[in-house]
Amino acid sequence: MSTLSIRCRICDGMSLHPFLDLGKMPIANSFLTHAQLSEPEYTFRLRCGFCVSCRMVQLMEVVEPDMLFHGNYAYFSSISQVMDEHFSELSTIIGEEILYDASLPIVEIGANDGILLQKLVSHNANAIGIEPSANVAAAARDKGLNVISEFFNVELAGTLRAEHGPAQLVVGANVLCHIPDLNGVARALEALLDEEGVFVFEDPYWLEIMAQLAYDQIYDEHVYYFSVSSLKRLFEKHGLRIFRVDPIAVHGGSMRVYGCKVACSRREEPSVRSQLTLENEHGLDSLDTYSAFAARVEQSRDSLRDLLGSLQGEGARLVGYAASSKGTVILNYCGIGPDLLEFVCDNTPSKEGLFTPGTHIPVVSIDRFAADYPDYAFLLAWNHLNEISIKEHVFREHGGRFITHIPMARII
Ligand code: SAH
Ligand code: TMP
Ligand code: ZN
Question: Is the shortest distance between the CB of 325 and ligand 2 below 6 Å?
């Protein structure tokens, strides 16, 4: 079900130091039916470690991928308009700066419901999506997209190359950090890419997670928390290199990394060196930086408990807004249950009528929220603050206020 490793999953060394313990945690996206509330829930210990040797920040205990990515996967990428616009921009960059040979395939891993793939097909009809979660893959196929419902790995890379030829692009958003066997992914990239082929990945960026105190980015699906320096070391072990990095705002601060084979003609751009310098200036190579982060996470938790407790003490009605996986981490780590939050509302139809993992707060529709506005809505998807705040202007005009816990709890 889950495996605990005291060795680093990337370099296999013994220099992995645990620095943050978020305690016993259920699967972040396993929302429960009413009947499941009385059954025992699967839990594991959510702990993060830093490898002093290869710099990779990683979970100590990793849940088996098929427990997370299956036919009932809860996250449909297309729920967010902001992400849709973001992927339109990425698709434009890919069309203008990356693609170079219309006869070579492009492959997207972690294609989900096709949010990006449906844009990529306009550049190249041979755009193939890889998506192991069968329900979201089916949603992509319903859009007419070519999606293989399997985990991306070195075997699949070999099959793809044999059937379609070498890839000019392998792209993946918010998926690389989900895959426990990253050495296997790097080997798969090496096997699948054309000599001039490019890979582009974007994932939450560790420096931003630290800067914003966004500890709720840490959960079962995110096995790794990347820096440019850790990714650079990983890729270079496998004949690959990074030639451009581009900080992006989505999901509270991510990094888009462009890479290729070592011998590819693309030149390394100055962004790589300057980001590495920035990481060193922020002490990303020092264990002290990580323990200081862990201490601030505890302060953030205390500030949230204090704020919600005192508002409730004043008689205010409190609810949660967005049944996100991040929300599962916050609620469980901070010990927030149905005694504090009346419900959590969310716009994903499949989550309606379910209960939050571990804390058992009912999940309701946004209509229910709008039917009887509470005094405060605690935002469990702070990364979507702008989008939600605009959508919910009527709530705010009725005197309602949002609460965020990032970086410390406050009313906004
Ligand atoms: N790219 C989308 C989806 C991110 S969620 C976006 O940015 O919105 C991560 C997705 O990766 C899930 O749909 C999950 O099923 C998929 N995934 C997990 N492991 C994978 C693997 N080994 N290969 C390909 N996809 C994987
Ligand atoms: P995420 O933080 O893992 O991206 O999950 C976001 C959750 O927020 C998802 O369950 C849908 C929900 N959501 C809303 O309810 N309303 C919105 O406007 C947006 C953008 C997301
Ligand atoms: Zn290591």
Answer: yes
CATH value at residue 94: 3.40.50.150
Task: Please indicate whether residue 238, judged by its CB atom, sits closer than 6 Å to ligand 2.
Answer: no
Confidence of residue 158 (pLDDT cuts 50, 70, 90): very high
Nearest CA to ligand 1 atom 25: 110
Per DSSP, the three-state class of 370 is helix
- Picking from 254, 282, 310, the residue at the C-terminal end of a domain is 282
Number of domains in the chain: 2
8 Å CB contact between 361 and 332:
no
Query: Could you tell me if the CB of 77 is within 6 A of ligand 2?
Result: no
Q: Are residues 129 and 269 in the same domain?
A: yes
355 DSSP assignment: B
Q: Of the residues 237, 267, 282, which one is the last residue of a structural domain? A: 282
Q: Is 161 in the pocket of ligand 2 (CB under 6 A)?
A: no
CA dist 74 and 147 (Å) reads 18
Pairing mode of beta strands 127-130, 106-109: parallel
Whether residue 84 has its Cβ less than 6 Å from ligand 2: no
Q: What is the pLDDT of residues 81-129, one digit of tens each?
A: 999 999 999 999 999 999 999 999 999 999 999 999 999 999 999 999 9
Pocket test for ligand 2, best of 346, 369, 387 (most atoms within 8 A of CB): 346
